[in-house]
Prior knowledge:
Number of helices: 10
Order of helices and strands: HHHEEHEHEHEEEHEEEEEHEHEEH
CATH architecture of the largest domain: 3-Layer(aba) Sandwich
Oligomer: single chain
Amino acid sequence: MDRFNAMRVFTRIVELGGFAKAADSLQMPRASVTILIKQLEVHLGVQLLQRTTRQVSPTLDGAAYYQRCVRLLADLEETEAVFSTQRQNPRGTLSINMPSGIGRLIVIPALPTFTARYPQIELEIGLNDRPVDLIREGVDCVLRGGLALDESLVARPLAQMDQLTLASPEYLQRMGVPHAIDDLARHQMVEYVSSASGKRYGLEFQIGSEVRPINLPKRVAVNSSDGYFAACEAGYGLIQAPYYHARRQLAQGSLVEVLPGVAVPTMALSALYPPHRQLSQRVRVFVDWLVALCARPGTGLYRG
């Protein structure tokens, strides 16, 4: 029995919650996965997994063994990278997840520079705003705007994105153009609901060193950035969003900036990954590339 391969299979079963999913993820026959786990349990002399008709979950011994396996496999990957060409030429699959707007408008257009530099890394990219369980779903790294909610993850700051207040021309024609914050009393907003936390977001303005929240009446609330923009373009009220996501609409005239003289707080953009992945050379080179990308002029993250 290849014990390291057995550990790899075991960790994937725990993370994905099933033998079939682990086999598909590792591109192995399902029978081979079952045999490896049986051999591993016999070798260790303990039951690692509880199997029911609907779910596979680790036993108490299995949970403890999983934590050790994760650390050992990460250490093995880093050790091999130190003494092989993988340090300069990392290889393998890198699974990442990011909001669709950041992916479409910032990261994917710039990806050819990354893939040309690291041709042996295969990228699997998920584009959505939903919460992602990195361990269970086998995701190596996520990009998220705003504050990191999961303190168990390592957060690498990438940028402080400029934001602005927006409305559709049709809405402003109907409701009037506000020239000061006090004018917002007769306006309405589109509410953004975080799919990760359920938190509801109104408007915020930076007044000196203070952030002033303003909640206006609403008729529509959405939980995705694309829906947020669509509701604004449809005339349902004011929104606040990162500049990069609004550039196309501003150029086309489907949205216009409101209260340009009143600052909106910046939004943090971070790369998040599990602690055991911080030694992965694939994750490391990708996050380093993201840091350089976000510092590059012209990305749209900054207005200047």
